[in-house]
Each structure stands twice: as structure tokens, then as C-alpha cells.
Amino acid sequence: MQAIPEEAWTDAYNKFPQFKDAGLSEKRVTELMQAIARNELFFYDLADALDDKSVRETDKPVQYPFKDRKAGDATLGVSQVSLDGVKKFEIEFPEQMGRYSSRESQALLNPIEAPMMIAAVLAHNIKN
Which pTM was predicted? Predict the structure, then answer.
């Protein structure tokens, strides 16, 4: 959590108008995003670490022979959002998430980008 500057949380809040439209304050959304990140880190396990390591080294998550999981379903980094999830958010929120196109895995593995990933999940949920 210490690797994520406070400005990243503020920036993520400000990039998604859904928060203000829903009447949610920056403080409330930031607290929620940080709680989600802490929860993901608390439950971060060996399988998560192996996926992150594999993506860093090979640009592909671990392929488990006993698990029927597509590579795009692997969740990565602090936010634990999937590669396919980021691609869907790029379509849903092109202005906010388009900058990650073709570099989704690097963005997910960068803790500084975690607030944007978590904010996209929350904004998607608000829209739905």
C-alpha cells in the first residue's frame, strides 16, 4: 500500500464521474478503494505470486494442467483484476482506461495503477 501515492487515489476518483453522480465523496470512495486493495493483499497467496512472477518473466500467467483457466482470466497485482477485465474496461471506459491498451499486464503489475483498476470496477458496478 505504501507504494501507492495518495495522488493516485485522488486521480482515480476524479477520472470517473460515476462517483460524483452517485453522490459519493472522494473520502468515501478512497476509503473503499483502499479497503479493497488491502483485502486483496491480505488474501494474496502463492498462486497469485506465481501468476505475477510468470507474467513478469514470460508475459503469460501460470498454466495449471489441472485447472481449466484461460490466460485472460488470471488476476494480477494489487487490484487482482483480470487481464480480460481490463480489456473490457478499456471498451467501457475508453477515456479513463484506454491508456492501458496492449499493456494490460504491465499496468496490473504496477501498484501505482491499482487505484485506477479498482475505480473501474466500482464505476462499472455503479453503472450496472
Answer: 0.94
